[in-house]
Amino acid sequence: MMDETFERIADGLAEHGYAIADLFLSQAEVDAIRNSADFLQEADQFKKAGIGKQNDLQINEAIRGDYIRWLDKNNASVPAKVYLDRLQELIGYINRTLFLSLKDYEVHMTIYPAGTFYKRHLDQFKKDDHRKLSVICYLNDHWQDEHGGQLRMYLDNETKDILPVSGRLVCFRSDQIEHEVLPATRERLSLTGWILDQVADLRHL
Ligand code: OGA
Ligand code: MN
Prior knowledge:
The structure is a single chain. 21% of the residues lie in helices and 28% in strands. By secondary structure, the chain is of the alpha+beta class. The chain has one domain (2-204): Jelly Rolls (Sandwich), CATH 2.60.120. A seven-stranded antiparallel β-sheet has the order 1-9-6-11-4-3-2. A four-stranded antiparallel β-sheet has the order 5-10-7-8, with no helix packed on it. Strand 7 (151-154) and strand 8 (159-162) form a beta hairpin. Helix 1 (3-16) packs across helix 3 (78-98) and helix 2 (27-34) packs across helix 3 (78-98). The protein is globular and about 40 Å long. 33% of the residues are buried. Manganese (II) ion binds next to loops.
């Protein structure tokens, strides 16, 4: 039963513009995703992430150093599909409880090699505001403070650092919360996505 988790996420979004939910994925679900062909055999299919969209896309390692691969809902592995279906359920819950009309999502798998980072930014594009909520689920076992790699959110009067531990979901308003990924001493894996107010286009796939 995810209802309590969904409720906490919706409350957090309504009250603070962000929410953190541990065990959004169980340890077994995380293991299955990390061991799926998506992450293991096909690691060479990941591409260096860019900044901006389509024609404006630029690669700039001084800003971000991660590698990504978009998930195709129709061809995702069974373990990845478990996650995507849960996101779809979350969208339904948020729409019902917060009276929104979110329509779809897009998700990529993400690898930050040791030493890489993503400087402070906002997730909405200048010319495209369809990304309403950012949702990131982490896949890293035994992550400790000293490994670094925190997601740092810039809130009104403080910053909040979140460790990328297995199964933890962070969700925040894409138009409001600036954030960054601090460098880590080890590889950092996640599923990074956005909930949209329109049907996702297939430009990534
Ligand atoms: C992003 C991002 C945060 C994280 O990909 O836009 O900010 O914790 N990711 O991985
Ligand atoms: Mn971001």
